[in-house]
Amino acid sequence: MRLTLNGKPRRIDVHPMKRLLDVLREDCVLTGTKEGCGEGECGACTVLVDGVPVNSCLVPAAQVDGTRVTTIEGLGGRHPLQHAFVEHGGAQCGICTPGMIMAAVALGKRPTLEAIRVGLAGNLCRCTGYTAIYRSIEAATKARKHGRRD
Question: Is the pTM value of this prediction over 0.90?
């Protein structure tokens, strides 16, 4: 299959029914995407396919042929959301964090608190409440509005 992975064209020879999650972690050695439940219930494995957040544990490799896939590594550690999650306590144990950030990226640059709540509804954090996560996303939103990282 051919796809654009984190901005770079790739050709990957895998079984068409292999889970995208496993392709990313095993074949592409991109281990930032985490497996939580393996059933599409927790959102830990969220990646963007053509800009839309998906649970990569539910997506067969064949479905991403010809698409753009973005993982947490594709943000390069420089995205305002990554900085804000560290700065404002949104990152806890780290299992859900990549999926949370990817779901938040899909919200755009200036989501409302309601849009954040709805957009992250499929992402579960078992460490804490969501206050620090929402605060982190709002901080990144404010930083972008004022033209700074945070």
Answer: yes
